[in-house]
Amino acid sequence: MADVCEEWGVDVSRGPDWLFLRLRPGKTEPAGMADKIWSLADRHFVYRLVLEMNDVSMIPSHLMGQLVMLQKRVLQREGALRLCGLSKECAEALRFCRLDQALPNFASLEDAVKGQRRHAPHFANA
Question: Where in the numbering of this chain does the STAS domain appear (predicted)?
Fold first, then answer.
């Protein structure tokens, strides 16, 4: 596990052309997280990232800012930044701030890599 900022850790794994980063939140705000994750991507020469957010219970504004900063850097390298495993509350917070299109959330790691969003089933009225 690597440290991405004070008290925050990240588990890093690689797939073909993708870097998978599972965030491990700490008790403090994630200052400098975008820089540290960018450094990991640069070290691996991979700019297609999936952030696994399963352990993140809330997204404060500072974390949103770090994610936006990271997204801008990734796009400059023609890469992709996708999230997966966000709680319903975290996904709603991104939607409320109109960041859900810029920072897409997927149900699973596999869906994030494929870029497939699963939609809720539609039920016909009886």
Answer: 49-116
Long-range contacts, 26-31 (Cβ 8 Å, 24+): 29/60, 29/62, 29/63, 30/4, 30/5, 30/62, 30/63, 30/66, 31/5, 31/6, 31/62
Beta-carbon contacts of 55 under 8 Å, excluding residues fewer than 6 positions away, are 22, 23, 24, 25
Q: Using the structure block, give the residue that is written with the tokens 């952030």.
A: 51
pLDDT in tens, 63-90: 999 999 999 999 999 999 999 999 999 9
Look at residues 102, 92, 91 and name the one whose alpha carbon lies nearest to residue 68: 102
Q: Quick one: 2-114 is in which CATH superfamily?
A: STAS domain (3.30.750.24)
